[in-house]
């Protein structure tokens, strides 16, 4: 195919996006404009393309090209496709690619909190969740279990980082999301902004002064914002104090808490119905 380029020079600058730039460098690649991200696997790439993200180039392995990958490349036959044997690509990128396919894409301007929340009934807020795996897993649960949007504080890992997007199975491209504006002080101004939009706020926290997660009054609220805290430490004390409700997931066998991604699935299932 005319757009397929066999990799013969590891130092080709066109491969920097895949082999030599960190996630942070890609994020800041075009500052002050939105940067670049790299999506991995045909399913994730396909969902990003369906959501309107613009591909820059593809990096694919010769062997084991499944039908989904072939269909993507056929639809984008003007976009450069860098290709080599799997062993060569592993040497270049430093890892085994999921189903042999990567795609560098241009980021888009993020919407405002108001835009993301328009028409939403159930949303979740991630407070300083730093592990990309947890961020991706929470997005997958949010999309599957009736959340309408995801908001993130500035301390969260970026949902478009390769691992986060892959763990989410591409749902980061299916559910609306954004960060709180950098000028918005969290939690005071952020929670006040949510209240102005009409949301009651729910702190998921290990406190005894809490309501049951299946409380009928809680579930009858027209708009709920479910706030999840960072790994290990949980929510900030100021966040818990500012919220309308505190909810604790009942535990058994002496277990005191769940991983934030697991807790998110429980909360979304119970409060999103």
Automatic annotation (TrEMBL):
Q: Which keywords appear in this protein's UniProt record, sorted alphabetically?
A: Methyltransferase, Transferase
Q: Output the InterPro entries linked to this UniProt entry.
A: Alpha/beta_knot_MTases, Ribosomal_eL30-like_sf, rRNA_Methyltransferase, SpoU_MeTrfase, tRNA_m1G_MTases_N
**Keyword Flavoprotein: yes or no?**
no
Keyword Glycoprotein set for record: no
- Could you tell me which residue ranges the tRNA/rRNA methyltransferase SpoU type domain spans? 124-268
Gene3D superfamilies, sorted: 3.30.1330.30, 3.40.1280.10
Any one GO molecular function term: RNA methyltransferase activity
Q: Which GO terms describe its biological process?
A: methylation; RNA processing
Name of the protein described by the UniProt record? RNA methyltransferase
